[in-house]
Every structure is written in structure tokens, then in C-alpha cells.
Amino acid sequence: MLNILFINPVVREKGLPMHVPYGLGIIVAIAETLGHRFQVLDLNALRPPDQAIVEALRADRWDIVALGGITTTYGSVKRALQLLDGALDYRPAVILGGGIITAMPHDIMSLLPRVDLGVIGEGLQTFPEILERLESKRDDWQNVLGVAWRRSDGKVIVNRERPLVPMPEIDQTPYPAWDYFPLDVYFSNSSQLFSEEAYFTRRRLDVNASYGCALICRFCYHLGLTGELQTVETEEGNHEVVFGYRRDVRWHSPRYVVDMVKHMKNKYQVDFVCFLDENMMTMHRSSKGQWLTEICQLWIQEGLQPQCVRDKVPHDLDKCDGVHWGGTSHASQVDEKILPLMHDAGCSWLCYGLESFNDRILKQLGKGALRKHNIQCIEKTVKAGIRPTPNQIIGFPCEFFDSIRDSMTAWEELGLMVKPFFATPFPGSEWYYKYRQLILEQYDGSLEAFLLDLGDCTEVTANISLNFNKCELYGLREMMLNNDKRGIDEYEKMWHQHHDQPVLDPEKIPWFAKYKTGEEDKYREEIKAYSEGRLIEVVKGPRPTA
Ligand code: SF4
Prior knowledge:
binds iron/sulfur cluster, seven-stranded mixed β-sheet, about 40% helix, six-stranded parallel β-sheet, Rossmann fold
């Protein structure tokens, strides 16, 4: 039996702890099922001072310290590992998993030398295999699929990827071990301003009912859960992770999903469930319209339908039993026929990543939807009695005044109140790899500085807009929020006085179309110009003089 300390790092310093870490919760449940001893130190929920972390690290003698999460946890992971080194006079094995290492295992293993093993992509089978080896004191890591490890000479080795757990075996995944996380903290942050029911909820937990998304949006980052992650051999026995267009979406059976929600309701008195799925509607389409239909039917059949929906009366927190829920949809994939049934089963909001109302931008994103789909999906969702939450983003590579205006007119027509996020090239997204060198130039070549700067997209971090600098993006967003069309017209005139032509298609820029990661030296001048906001000069010639 091993003694494991699981650490849930801080996801975003500025953000409240809103979600019990779902993936880590499952990994903890796996360790419990296997009979290991363990404790959970939830830094994200508790935000303890360093001294309290050190005391927790010294509270027992650990065989393993396991931690992980998405890329924005980098700063917290790094700090926890620094404290670990100073706190203990022995050396537990450190395992890191999740998106933070999946997208760039070599980089992260170099930046975090205290990490002994990295779990790349899905950990459901990899983690137990690692535990088995550590327990039997074996170190033949070259035989374990889906790990990054250190050879005796210190070199980081990335093994071949591990095949994903197929359907229906994925239903054998244990529920997250919620009991070991400070649920009082998470319940106190249950409220989400997505719908009346979501706002007034007393106890919300999350469900992840499916894995991945069938679409290929170029700004969306991948976690290696859809068959999109592959490895290519770089030298004998060593590999690099690459993301392709393969999509093997998987989903849990309606029975698994509904039984989990019943368990949450019975054990934790949950009244709202937030589905974390990347895109529920794509699963519904992939199952030929069965998946959401069966979930909704079973939800009602098993007594989870909220009373207010059943009796067609306004939602009253003190009277309403059952469980309301919200999830993710997609503008062109949304199935109008399923929406009324979703409403009847208690769905109160659906999140749509609409991103922009400009067709040129939407096509460049690979969004699989156009302006007309964005408009139609809002109308269909409202008609079914479900609140659409429309995500908008500005600062895409070819964002320009036309796309900004298109979004503003759509907001006006549809009556949307929305504050756009800023396009952010998270590691694991196609645009991170395409613009990697351009991104790093903005941080004096420091990948770590970029990782530490990443947040929740409400601020500009690495700017990938080819037409606007950071300052312009903040100003434009402010004018969009104020519907200040005159201000935008005035600024466009000024912009043209200082620039020649905008970049509306990066593939038409001769050097950019040819540029590939690894050819930084060849395009050094252009990349530098980009990072200094002078790209247009390089592309089209110097700015006109007065
Ligand atoms: S539809 Fe959403 S989840 Fe799917 S690839 Fe696009 S942004 Fe990502």
C-alpha cells in the first residue's frame, strides 16, 4: 500500500474556487478503489499560506505527491514543488498530470525538474499502472504508455501515447471522490449567473458526461481525450506530442450519468448540476440523436425533474425539488427537436461558444458555424425556454473593424449583453503551435513567463491579433461594450493613417504562409516586427509619412 498526497493547485489566483477538480477527483477515487492510503490538499479551495502548506507536507511520510490540472495551474504547481523540496528531508516520487503537461511534456519536465513522472492525456489506466510499478519498486518506465519520465542520465523521455478507454468500458470509471474535497467551500461558490436557477442554487456539483469535441476550432486547447493526441518519434525511444484532426468522441451512457446525479442528490442534496462537457450537442449528434434524448427521459423517469418545470410554475427555491442543470451546445449542431425535452428535464441554460458574428473570422476559426447559425441558435434556445449564454471573443489573428462591427450589430439585434473574452493561444491549441515563436517574443523568449501570465481570457496575455496591439484591443472592447459606433469609426480612420492594409488572411502574407515552427531564425526579422506591433510595415511596406 502506498501513501499518496494529492495536491489540487490554485487554478487562477484571481478566480474563486468554483469547481471540485473533476479529473483529480476521479484519480483520487481510483487510488481509493485500489486500497492506497491518501490525503487531499486542496490549495485551490483553501488558498493556505506557505507555512500551512509546509505543515501539511510534513504531516505524514508520503511515497508519492501527485498533482496536476490545466495550464493555468503552472504557478501554483511550481510553488508547491519548491515548498516540497524545502519541507522534507526525504524524496517522495512526484507525479504531474492534466493539461499542464499533456500539451508540452518536454517543456514542462524541463521547467519543473522536481517532477519525476508526467501523465500525458487520459490517466485512467496510466495512473494505476504507475502506482503498481512504484509499489513493486520497478522503474522500467520505458514500458508504460502515456508517460514522460527521466532516464538515469537525467534526459526526459516521452513514451508513445496510450489508447483511450473505449465505450462502454468508460462507464467503469468511478465517480469523483467528492468526500475528500472541502465541499463547503465549493458549495458556497455554487452560484453562476447563467440562469435564475443557476444563480439561486444552494448546492451545485459538476458532471463530465463526455470526452472531447468533434470540431476543430483552432484556438481551442486539447487535453488528449479525443484521439487527437499522437506522438511522433524524434529519436530512438523518444517522442514529441502532436495534435491532429482525429476525433474519437466518447460519452458515458445515460444510465451512468443519471445514476451519478441521483447519487449527488441523495448524498449531497445537490439542486443544480453543471455539465463540464466541451460540447454536449456534438455527442448528441454523434449518437444520432439518442444521447441527450435518453438522458432527459431517464432524468424525468428517475424523479430528477424539477418541480417548477413539472408543475409549470415559477421557480421557488424552497418548494422546487429535483435537479436543474446547464451545459454546452453548438450553434450549427444544436438540435431544435431536443431542446423542449431538455427544458422539461430541467435544463435552464446552454452555453454557446459563438465567438464572433463575422463569417470571415468564424471560417478562420474552423468553428463549423456562421453568423446565421449563431443568430438562429439563440432564437431556438430562447423559444424552448432555456437561457443561452453566448461567449464572445475578440483579438483573433485577423480581427478587424468589420468583424467588430458585425458582432456589435448582432448584439443589438438579438438584445445580447455580453463582454467579450480575449483570444488566448493556450498550449494545446493549434494556434499555440502556429504562433509559438510569435508568442514567446512577447515574453523575451520565456515560456515560463507566458505560462505565468495565462489567466481566464478576461485580460490580453499573448496577443495573436495581427492588426491590433494590446492597447487597441482593450480600447475596442470598451467601445463595443458601450455600443460606441462613432468612436470605432473615428478610430478606424486613425488606424488607416498609420497603417497600409489590414491582414485579413494570414495565409496571404508571404512569409507567414511559409513560416513553420522550427524556422524561427529564417523569419527572425518578421517575428520581431510582429511582437513590436510593426507587422503591417513588414508585410506591406513602411507606414506612410506625413
Ligand atoms: S466547438 Fe467548442 S469545444 Fe469544440 S473545438 Fe470548438 S471551441 Fe472547442
